[in-house]
Amino acid sequence: MTTNELLWYISRATGLASIVLLTFVLVLGVLGPIRRADQRGGRSLLRPAVRAGLHRTLALGMVCFITAHVASAIAETFVDIGWLSAVVPFTSGYEPLFVGLGTLALDLAFAVIATALLRNRLPRGAWRVVHRAAYALWPIAAFHGLMLGTNEPALLRYVTVACIGVGVFAITSRLASRRIAAAATPGRGAARPLRADAQRPLARSSRAA
Question: What pTM value is reported for the model?
Fold first, then answer.
């Protein structure tokens, strides 16, 4: 096996590991509020601190795999992907659209990770806006891997499709839980029953009449 072939395999393997880890990070982040609600009912499997720590650890591991994926993809010479293409989207000489989506996902990933590490130093609103970019990061990365993996072994495509299914299920569950919570919460303008002390003047006035 030549060095170029080895780099090709490393690029594919680390790319697949990246989308798997990204999917786990997404699931932990998306289902966190649902699990907190379950904990109040005594059904939580992981404590919030454990869940948050696992979320951060997997995110950092994902960044390591993404870095190895990008570096090996640029180093191998089967396709023309330059260092500029790793930073600026849609500048690759090979499949500029699909490689550009991967570059866009990479930029979003580093922005999300950087703001997560600086969370205590940033305004909460700014951190929340950037962190929600993960909702765009995951489908972009998944589509990037799926479209560039059409000529790869079937197992790689099946794993990517499975990750897409898991991510869609997690997001759908989150949206469904929010709708249920909104339906269970009474509207702000709903009439509230009068307290006992507020009803006493009314009772007195009626007796006086």
Answer: 0.77
